[in-house]
Amino acid sequence: MRIKKYLAVMAAGAIALSGCSGSSSEKETATAAKTETAAESKEAESTAPETTAVETTSEAEPEDKGGFKVEGTKLLDANGNEFVMRGINEAHSWYKDQDGVSLKAISEAGCNCVRIVCGSGQKYSADAVYTLKTLINVCKNLNMVAILEAHDGTGDNSIEMLEDIADYWISVKDAYVGQEEYVILNIANEWYGNWSGIGTWAEGYETVIPKLREAGIENTIMVDAAGWGQYADSIAEYGQEVFDSDPLKNTMFSVHMYGSAGKNEKTIRKAIEGATDEGLCICVGEFGYRHSDGDVDEAYIMQYCTENDIGYLGWSWKGNGGGVEYLDISNDWEGKNLSPDWGEVLINGEYGIKNTSKICSIFE
User: Fold this and answer.
1) How far apart are alpha carbons 286 and 121 in whole angstroms?
2) Does residue 231 contact residue 257 with C-beta atoms inside 8 Å?
3) CB atoms within 10 A of CB 5
């Protein structure tokens, strides 16, 4: 694999990121959700080791403020203030050479957080401690909370896969332990693709969450719904059990809204209120304006989330392929040309990011 080296100059200082340019982002399934397909042609390459071009500027150890904390349906930051996510997903694992440009542009779009696609080694190249530290520092310099997610288990139904991903997070914990006020750990993107047998979904997370805590990981944990992230009933029915498996009681949930979970107002309300009525904290971790499984009422998602202090994160900045290029929020990495049907609405709409995002108080 050819390794590209580059230097991205950030507003807060020079930050270097490196890696190989990868394949395209999320791909369609024939049913109710999405999966990656075009990326598989690069799978043989994805095991190549990462290299780093330039050392990041050393920083003093962050002051221990205790980190994010889930309290009922609310996510509180390290200062005890409610934090409502307004963010975008960034395809780090496939386009590492664009991280510096895209993260800066995402920040300039008004985001207070960014969900970063990472690899844990099962399908995509495993991100090293140094790489994760660099990403976290870039986000901190841009006043954004980093939400790290492992994409390898997308749609997989085996608990063994989830355990392997948990083992990866333990192996790289030095990157984010001690950064609890800046980093949220979204264990696995859309693990468990089935819309039935969701007791297995619960069993998987009840297995790995205590394991992560035993390893000394205290960051707030985020858990995606079953059914490729869209089966919100899994949270309503089993979310409390998953939450109770966390010794720190610091787990929140995420539903992904495409043509199934986000198709109309009734479905959107049911998906979110199924969690909040149980006293659980939830966000919309991904959504678009349409997808292979149908149209999405993105305007109502943003309106409902704004009116009810629910976080949302749009999918995705740039790099979608395999027929879902319409999900690109921006037509260029720099964010100078937003897609008219999606990016303009998400960022500049009445209930969009620029009008509703508030910086996390840890950066004030």
Assistant:
1) 23
2) no
3) 13
Strand 18-19 to 4-5 pairing: antiparallel
Neighbours of 182 (CB within 10 A): 25
DSSP assignment, residue 180? T
Mean pLDDT in residue range 106-114 = 99
Q: CA 34, 38, 39: angle at the middle one, nearest 5?
A: 95
Total count of residues recorded for the chain: 364
In order of start, what are the domains of the chain with their CATH numbers?
4-363 (3.20.20.80)
Eight-class DSSP state of 58: P
Higher pLDDT, residue 306 or 60: 306
Q: Which residues contact 342 (CB under 8 A, 6 or more apart)?
A: 288, 289, 298, 314, 326, 327, 328, 329
Closest to 296 (Cα-Cα) out of 357, 249, 255, 250: 255
- ∠ Cα 334 355 188 (to 5°): 65
What are the pLDDT digits (tens) for 25-50? 333 333 333 333 333 333 333 333 33
**Among positive and negative, which fits the CA dihedral 205, 210, 212, 218?**
positive
How far apart (Å, rounded) are the C-alpha atoms in residues 103 and 111? Answer: 10
Pairing mode of beta strands 113-118, 86-90: parallel
Catalytic residues: 190, 286
